[in-house]
Design a protein that fits this description.
Blueprint (H helix, E strand, L loop, with lengths): L1 H31 L3 H14 L4 H14 L2 H14 L3 H44 L4 H14 L2 H14 L4 H14 L15 H13 L3 H13 L6 H13 L3 H9 L9 H17 L2
Helix pairs in contact: 1-2, 2-3, 3-4, 3-5, 4-5, 5-6, 6-7, 7-8, 7-10, 9-10, 10-11, 11-12, 12-13
């Protein structure tokens, strides 16, 4: 009697093993043929019929692993290992943990690099704000913007460098390339009176001066001047101040000759300073 029961049990095990391997073969074939939905469905159906089958649960974890859903795969494997030490499940779980560890490390490095870039940009922007004649940091920003595809920002920053140093070959190359390829212009809109809100532009002019963005301020001034905008005395004082800071002594002299500077004890000092700077500029040529 015992022998009959044992034979019956062995036959059941063999039938189960046969049905499992047939299902596995069919699921693999479906998956590799691109029919992932039916592959998952076949394995899930087998698990419903044989809920104690750790092999089937492990197979499902493998399919999730192949499809890139590491979380679901991991969840299944941890469930298997909670009930029994299953070598195949251990091996796959170790592979997932290694992969997820590398992903987390990569994401951490990526976030750290992004933060570092953000800090560098903040630092460079603060440097050029504090120093209107800083061509070096403006050039670095222009190159960075160009590299990441922020072409308008790259053009504007390169243009600011050329306002300070018209002979910068690299910045000339950037502006020429962007102007030709993408038809970019620092002040294209401002040169067209029909699309210019002059009051808004003058508010921007005041804001740029307050923020000490002198190169951008001077670029905007030139664009507005070409659009025949009339400036107030206070605006002219700011323009004169900026022109002197940027070394635009001829423009400053012309503005001074217009009488834009209020007559006070500083007027003669400014006039003497301009004369001296113009003389030095001519002598250095």
């Amino acid at each position: 009697m015992k022998r009959i029961i044992l034979l019956f049990l062995l036959a059941g095990v063999q039938l189960f093993a046969q049905s499992y391997y047939e299902m596995k073969k069919e699921a693999y074939a479906l998956y590799h043929d691109g029919d992932k939905k039916h592959a998952f469905s076949k394995v899930n159906q087998f698990i419903q019929e044989h809920p104690q089958s750790l092999q089937a649960q492990n197979l499902l974890a493998v399919l999730y692993y192949w499809s890139g859903d590491l979380q679901k795969s991991r969840h299944l494997l941890e469930g298997i290992l909670a009930h029994q030490s299953f070598p195949q499940a251990k091996k796959l779980l170790a592979r997932i943990e290694s992969k997820q560890g590398k992903t987390k490390s990569y994401q951490s490095i990526k976030r750290a690099n992004q933060q570092a870039v953000s800090n560098d940009l903040t630092y460079l922007l603060s440097k050029i704000q504090d120093n209107p004649n800083d061509t070096q940091n403006r050039a670095l920003l222009a190159k960075y913007y160009f590299k990441i595809g922020a072409y308008q920002k790259a053009f504007d920053m390169a243009h600011e460098v050329l306002v300070i140093d018209p002979n910068d070959k690299k910045m000339q190359t950037i502006t020429q390339h962007l102007s030709q390829k993408y038809k970019l212009s620092y002040s294209a809109a401002l040169e067209n009176e029909s699309v210019v809100d002059k009051n808004q532009a003058k508010k921007m002019l005041q804001k740029l001066h307050q923020e000490k963005k002198y190169a951008a301020f001077y670029n905007l001034y030139e664009a507005l001047k070409n659009s025949h905008v009339v400036f107030s005395q206070n605006e002219y004082v700011n323009i004169l101040h900026t022109a002197i800071m940027l070394g635009k002594y001829k423009e400053a002299e012309m503005l001074f000759a217009k009488g834009v500077l209020p007559v006070n004890k500083y007027t003669l000092q400014v006039q003497l300073l301009l004369s001296k700077k113009l003389h030095q500029s001519v002598a250095s040529r």
